[in-house]
Amino acid sequence: MSTDQLRPMSPVQIAQTRDFIDGLEAGAATYWDMVKIGDELSRELTISAELVILYADGVEDFNPWYEGWRMNSWKIPGQSPFGGAIVPPLLVSHFVLSVQFDHTRPFAIGSIHTNHDSEILAPIPIGATVRITTRATDKYVKRERRYVRHSVTVEDVGNGTLYFRETRDILSL
């Protein structure tokens, strides 16, 4: 398969783009159609030192507070003003979509994350297992565009600590 020379794409990206276009042509359900107010989904995630390394490297956030690892000794307790190493505060926000769009509700055609308001309540220690829960709280139309609003919480599976809250809006075709 070939693609536009100005937009080089891997075979996977080409296939995903083709699937997206085929879905549009077949009349795939929009996120607005798929979600009902009150729908709630959750997923557990263990935030390992490896996951933190991948995230911090990707966003170039090299804060020593996040270092729960060291070359040749690998996992260490780390240090921060909160005790041991902590998770970069917005890392968990990136996993919300993996809860909203899981195997029961695949990523919908024409949905765009347009807004989020995050509230960091407590530092998450590296190694914690958290439950990310998202709940559809509203559907509204603004400037003739349809939006679905979600309320998100991130809490510790073991001790119930509420670490993070977020409100996010998704525009839907």
TrEMBL record:
UniProt-recorded name of the protein: N-terminal of MaoC-like dehydratase domain-containing protein
InterPro entries: HotDog_dom_sf
